[in-house]
Amino acid sequence: MFIVDSTVVVPEHKADDLIAIYKKRSRLVDEAPGFISFQLLQNDRKQGELTVHLEWENKAYYLDWVRSKQFKEIHELEKRYPDEELQGIVPKVTKYEVVAL
């Protein structure tokens, strides 16, 4: 299994706005071959820290997704967030290979 976490930090007063955006997400990734699951995580102590957690069958499927037209579409939408404070967020991406269960 391959896991990708994208963490952003937004002003705490904007956390609910970002959560609302993800609740209405396009779900294009859900249809990608090898995709397992999506979760949006909120830090228990820092409400403005949110992590998109994606699980894939393997790294190759993830890389296929990153190269896909749908991936590019989703990330173009992020540039058009209605809120200027959210438009400029840059995620810290961390990738993991699951080595034991």
From TrEMBL:
Pfam families, sorted: ABM
PANTHER family, per the entry: SIGNAL TRANSDUCTION PROTEIN TRAP (PTHR34474:SF2)
Any one GO molecular function term: monooxygenase activity
Record bears the keyword Magnesium: no
Entry superkingdom: Bacteria
Name of this protein: Antibiotic biosynthesis monooxygenase
Presence of keyword Oxidoreductase: yes
Keywords: Monooxygenase, Oxidoreductase
SUPFAM superfamilies: Dimeric alpha+beta barrel
Domain ABM span(s) in chain numbering: 2-90
Organism: Halobacillus salinarum
